[in-house]
Amino acid sequence: MTTIYWVSSSDELAAAIGRAEPGSSILLADGVYERNEDYIIEGKVGSDTAKLSIRAVNKGKATIAGESSIRILNSAYVEVWGLHFQVEQRESIILDGSRHVRIARNRFEPRQVGAEYSLLSVLGSGSGWNRIERNEFGPKADLGPLVVFDGDGEQISQHDVIEYNYFHHIGPRVVNGLEAIRLGLSGISLSNGYITIQHNLFENCDGEPEIISVKSCYNTVRYNTFLNSAGQVTARHGHGNRFHNNVFIGDGVKEEMGGFRIYGNDHHIFDNYMENLTLDALLIDGGNYDGGLDGYPETPTQEELRKHWRVYRANVVNNTIVNCRHGITLGKRIPYAPEQCVIAYNRIFSKEQPAIYEYRPSPAVCINNYNADVADIRYPAILTRIDVGPDSD
Hints:
InterPro entries: PbH1, Pectin_lyas_fold, Pectin_lyase_fold/virulence, PL-6
Shape: globular
Strand content: 35-45%
Organism: Paenibacillus etheri
CATH superfamily of the domain at 112-376: Single-stranded right-handed beta-helix, Pectin lyase-like
CATH topology of the domain at 112-376: Pectate Lyase C-like
Largest sheet: 14 strands, parallel
Oligomer: single chain
Protein name: Lyase
């Protein structure tokens, strides 16, 4: 039988979290739950049929405020649903060594205080199979990625899904450290994540050059929409990532709106659509470190892990580029040009630029990339606010 805890204050919420066992529901009445200590869920290991659920009675009407995180530590099958987070100077939710956690239909709207913090952090040993879905993240001007996967120093969390979320109004512009999503760090970049980022809407995400920064291996970024966002989806570290069926739409005016920037080995970039961008639609960059054909040098130093790794065997196929300032670009960074790449069947709708621009000669295999006629454009489906976030179907 499910135990239900009805709470209406921060003290009652903390006490209920301490008592509740898997299979219980903690229901938050409308109001502000302000506290300067974390709410700690530790060692609560449930199952698919016995979850610990923390839910707002009325979606969006229970506000977590103050300097307090919900910290889910070494737990499994926990759900956080329908809350409004206005936390100051720190993460709203921390998943630490936890699995099968569902973070759904929450609104993350931090109080801007000039500090550096993330909104949702996934870290710790053994983390995985978590789902972050139908939340709203933003606005955010303070430094720190909105959603960050930091791992445990050796391994990133695995098999997580980030879907149907709304990321918006991130900025003003900084050089580094204000990504919408960061998957990993240089120190864990050779670990495999198998994380999926799909069906999210990114609008006016102008915080830094990397809207999504992938710093791990074998993740998938697909079916997302990027609207008027100054930055690029970047395979910054790691290998074997897949980027497909994403849509990038700019207004042709805002600077630094791009598509992809790629480093490392064996990435696949296919079936994406890019229109009215003011930066490179597809940059298969050069590198300042050569990680080798297999991409796993025996003892790379931390300094080497932080470098821009030479690209090997990128497959760039069947992408559509419409009225972008720069189309497919190879090898800006020196000294190592991309190697063994296949650039094939991409359509560029612009008569003012070549289909492919090479900064330096690259041995890429280029097949049937061409400037196409506007009548041949196949317009993709574009996500809107109706499709994502706490109030979506």
